[in-house]
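pinging the channel bc i need a second pair of eyes. not urgent but kinda urgent?? the chain im working w is below, pasted from the shared doc
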Amino acid sequence: MRYFGPEFLQRVSDSLNIADVIGSYIPLKKKGNRYWACCPFHHEKTPSFSVSPDKGLYYCFGCHAAGNVFTFVQKMENLSFPEAVEHLAEMAHIELPEEQVSEEDRKKQSEITAMYEAARLASDYFHNCLTKTRMGEAGLAYFRKRHLSAETIEAFKLGFAPPAWDRLFHDFTQKKNFAPKTLVDAGLVGYSNGRYFDMFRNRCMFPILNLKGKPVAFGGRVLDDSKPKYLNSPETPIFNKRRLLFALYQALPRIRETRQVIMVEGYMDAISLHAHGVTNVVASLGTAFTIEQARLLKRYADEVVFSYDMDAAGQNATRRALEIAETVGLRIRVARVGEGKDPDEFVNLHGGDAYLEAVRQAQPAMDYLLASLLRQYDATSLEGQQHILQEMFAVLTAREDSFLINSYIRKMARAMRVDEGLIRSEATRYVSRNRPGIYISPREPVKEAESRESQKQVRLEEGFLAYCLLYHTFPSAWPEMKDFPYASPFCQRLAEAIRAVETEGQTLTEKAVQQKLGPEDVEALAALLMKDDYAGTIPWEEFVRPLKLGYLQKEYKRHTEKAGELSQEQPEAAREEMLACIRLSREIRELQKKTSG
């Protein structure tokens, strides 16, 4: 991954107005010294997305998305950090610094570029074979039988692979001058018993695009009963099926707009729904839903509606997908579109509006799962009850949310007509073996909250550091706080960044501190500074004194407990702990006197 130094990042940042960059994506309206808009990262009607050109930061008061110009472009374009820097440098007409590339890396990049080009030309090759040759007539007849128009075929660049064993291999090596190795590495050609052969033959072809819209792989469907019915490209340096979804590139505009994605199983399900105006639809690539795909969707959507086939295999796939999706914090619902019908069949029978109505009525994931298990197993038998509980617990505990599992225990007890206490006992046994960090309430479901004292301490730490940055000053209490043991890891790193600015003799500004922080901390910094709710005027009284007092009191308690533990077997060590308590008690009294004075 390419590295850019802080000086270059500062130059790019200074050359661009963050409001101009964000304004090129969404309409901004100026109010005071800030700009406001409806957030591009979640659906809202009232603008809560704020942009500060002075600070070079943005913050959403609704979903708490925050960052600088680099993180914004990263999220909007789904780029890596170096890619976002390159994009913005190009926008600012700044030439990238020279990069030292080894001969081995240069060769590897050249091979990958050749694979992308081979996949692009293969997509054109299959499409032209479908639409412009007699060989493709059988494929064209199949797509028309599936109710696909010429416009849809063109939009998805659907194609047809010739039936000959090595037609593509011959054309690409003889006419387009590709090396056989490139075609093998790209998954277009295979090699066995001393000869090369086309991987896809006599199949309808579905190009798989990456997030930049480039073809990277293919799915091919037979026209007869031969096996496998669907053949997908193997994994290659440019294609990882666990990290991509079919039709995601085409669906992204609508997904970003609605913050919702509909997940189906097959290529034809996705294409048919798009053709009927339901365009926030993606499909898995012949595999079970993966954690990587869930994380990918989480970048763009808050909710996933699963719309798998309603046969037994589809229901099992849905359950596995729910367990994975829950772990990344996606809101999950399940749409049922009629017994025995897949989304493709349903939308062609009833139309896009009827399908969208089914999506609107989709069940919350846990409700669907419980109902599905009650249909599959006999809830009156001990064996059936065990199956239901084990599968429910597996999905419920995936998010490690104590409130979620406790709230469902009552619902499960009512639905299964089983004593609630028994289910709580089973849940306790399950989490002790599998998820020991989850708390099962013995009575009422209660969400475990963080310690109020811990929350208070972090807020005081944030308040003090925000004061320093908002007023661009090192207050008189700064020497006491720059080496303070901050409870928040982010505040610890922020204090170190401020200390570095001081050491270098720079003026304390938001932008100077940004350059000392890693990209992963910029969002937290933006969230801290854009809220403007740390209105302290006397930092010693409002932040420093309570922080130091809280720290000393915690230390006093820790040493007291330690002294008690050591008193029997290690009296000398216990005495040292008691002396530490006396010293801390004295410091606490002095601090309290200083405050009252």
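so The radius of gyration is 30 Å. and DSSP finds 26 helices and 16 strands in the chain. — does that match what u expected or am i reading it wrong
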